Amino acid sequence: MGQEESTPIDEGASPTTLESRTLDGLAKHITSGQAKKIVVMTGAGISTSAGIPDFRTPGTGLYSNLARLQLPYPEAVFDISFFRQNPKPFYVLAKELYPGNFRPTVTHAFISLLHKKGLLLKCFTQNIDCLEREAGVPGDKLVEAHGSFATQRCIECKTEFPADGMRRLVGEMKVARCEQPRCNGLVKPDIVFFGEQLPESFFRNREVPYQADLAIVMGTSLTVQPFASLPTFVGEGVPRLLINKERVGGIGNRADDVLFLDECDKGVRELAKACGWSEELEEHWGGTASKAQPGTTKEKTKTMDEEVDELSREVEEALKLNASHQAWVNGELSSKDSKLAEEKQKKQVESEVFGEGDETKLHESRKKDSQDAKGENGATSGLDHVFPHLGKKSSL
Ligand code: CNA
After folding, report:
1. Which end of the chain is more exposed for a tag (fewer CB within 10 A), N or C?
2. Is there an atom of ligand 1 within 6 Å of 223 CB?
3. 19-33 tens-digit pLDDT
4. Do 21 and 141 sit in the same domain of this protein?
C-alpha cells in the first residue's frame, strides 16, 4: 500500500521515464503511446473557476457564511448527528452546490477528453459537485470518493429517493422525507458525512493507481485521508504531474514527477497544446456550455461576493432554528470555555460514530497538519481542511 513520500526533494534529478520533467516531456510520453492508462486525482481546485469556492481558502465563499448560521460548530453542516436534529443548514448548502448550478471548467473537459481518447483509466475525485459527470466522464470511470449529489436516500431505511423530487425540494429548500410507508426518515444526497463510510467504490478501486502509466493530480491540497495517499500508490518510474497553486503531498520528490504550480485551467491548456489537442479541448469544453443552466461559469453574471451575499440572505431567511435545537446550541455556548466545549462535542461525535481503528471512515482521526506544505505528505483527516479559517485547527 502507499508509503509516505519521505525521500528528500530533488527537483533537479534526471528523469528515468520522461525525456524531461516538463509538460513537453509529458506530452511526448502521452503522444508516443506510452501513457494509455492515465489516472486523474482531483479536488476542489478544479471547480473554483466554475464559481464553486475552494473551502480551504480563508474568507471566501460558503463556509465563511456558515459562521452566521448559528451552528454549534461549522462542521455540523456535514455531521450526521446534527443533520438528524436540524437538516436545514445542509439543505441551504445543497441548494447552492446542486448540480446544474455550475458549468464544468476546461479542466473537467480535459479529463473527459482523456476518456474520449481512450486514455483515462480512472478519475478519482473528492468533489461533490458532479462536474466530471457533467463534462462527460462516464460513471464507470469515476470514483466519487466523498460521494456526490448524483443519488440520494433515506438515512434510516436507505431507500433511494427520486432525483426529480429531490431537485425540486432542494430548490425550494424543503427537507425531503422518505416515501416508504411508516418511515418518514430524512433524505440526504449520498455525500459522505462525518460518521459515514466512504463509498464502497473507493475501496474497490483504491489500488487502481498501481496500474497507471501516468498520474495527474489537480486542484487538491491532498490533506484528507484516505484519498491523500492515492498518489503514493503510483508505481516508481511512472510520471506524476501535479497541477495546483501550491506544492502538495510530496509530489516533486520522485525523478519523474512534474510540477505545474499554477491554475488548473492554465495547466491543462498548456498540456493540451503540447499534445496538439488545443482545438479539440476548446471544442469539447464548448460542448458543455449548451448543457449548463444560464448564468453559469463563463456566462455567470454575479460576482462571488454577490453570490455570497445572496446566499447569506437566503440563509438568514431559511434558518429558523427550532426551540429544542436552539436550547442545545445555547447549552454549548454557555459552557465556561466554549472552545473546550466545542472540542468535547467533536470528540464525542467522533467516538460515537467512528469507533477506534477503523481506517475506512473518512474523518477517523484528527492529526494536526504540522508538516511543511512544501515537503512531505502532510495529510490529515477530518474537515479541518474545510474550515481552517474558523480557528479549528489551532485546537487540534
Ligand atoms: P482543498 O483542501 O480546499 O484544497 C484545494 C487545493 O486546490 C489547494 O491546494 C488550492 O491551493 C488549490 N487550488 C484552488 N484553486 C485552484 C485553481 N484554480 N488552480 C489550481 N489550484 C487551485 O480541497 P480538497 O479537494 O483537497 O479537499 C477535499 C475536500 C474539499 C473534500 O471533502 C471536498 O468534498 C471538499 N470540497 C468540494 C468542493 C466541490 O465539490 N467543488 C468544493 C469545496 C470543497
Report:
1. N
2. yes
3. 999 999 999 999 999
4. yes
Q: Are 155 and 172 in a shared domain?
A: yes
Tell me the best of 54, 192, 363 to mutate to test the pocket of ligand 1, counting ligand atoms within 8 Å of each CB and taking the most.
54
Query: Residue 72 is part of a domain; what is its CATH number?
Result: 3.40.50.1220
**What does residue 192 show for φ and ψ, rounded to 5 degrees?**
-75, 120
Q: Which of 46, 49, 52, 56 is the pocket-test mutation for ligand 1 (most atoms within 8 Å of CB)?
A: 56
Domain co-membership, 239 together with 284: yes
284 is catalytic: no
Q: What is the pLDDT of residue 194?
A: 75
Same domain, 335 and 272: no
Q: Which atom of ligand 1 is nearest to the CA of 385?
A: 2
Claim to verify: residue 66 and residue 150 sit in the same structural domain: yes
For residue 324, the model assigns a pLDDT of: 46
Please report, rounded to a whole number, the percentage of residues in the chain having pLDDT higher than 70.
Answer: 65
Residue 11 alpha carbon to ligand 1 centre in Å: 25
* Residue 390 Cα distances to 65, 224, 234, 319, angstroms: 11, 18, 34, 20
The answer to whether residues 21 and 157 belong to one domain is: yes
Ligand 1 neighbourhood includes 49 CB (under 6 angstroms) = yes
pLDDT confidence of residue 137: 97
H or E segment and range at residue 187: strand 187-191
Residue 297 CA to residue 287 CA, distance in Å, equals: 13
- For residue 392, the one-letter residue type is K
121 lines ligand 1 (CB under 6 A): no
Using CA atoms, how far residue 257 sits from 39, 47, 166, 262, in Å, is 14, 24, 43, 16
Nearest CA to ligand 1 atom 31: 126
What is the extent of the structural domain holding 332? 305-354
Burial of 279 (0-12, 13-18, 19+ CB in 10 A): exposed
Query: Distance, CA 163 to ligand 1 centroid (Å)?
Result: 26
**CB of residue 35 inside a 6 A radius of ligand 1:** no
Residue 78 has a pLDDT of 84
Ligand 1 atom 22 nearest Cα: 45
Instruction: Please tell me if the CB atom of residue 128 comes closer than 6 angstroms to any atom of ligand 1.
Output: yes
Residue-wise pLDDT for 253-299, tens only, equals 999 999 999 999 999 999 999 999 999 999 999 998 866 555 444 34
Residue ranges for the chain with pLDDT beneath 70: 1-12, 54-70, 74, 290-396
How confident is the model over 195-241, as pLDDT tens digits? 788 999 999 999 999 999 999 999 999 988 899 999 999 999 999 99
Global pTM? Answer: 0.76
Active-site hit among 29, 108, 115, 146: 146
CA angle 132, 249, 246 (to 5 degrees): 75
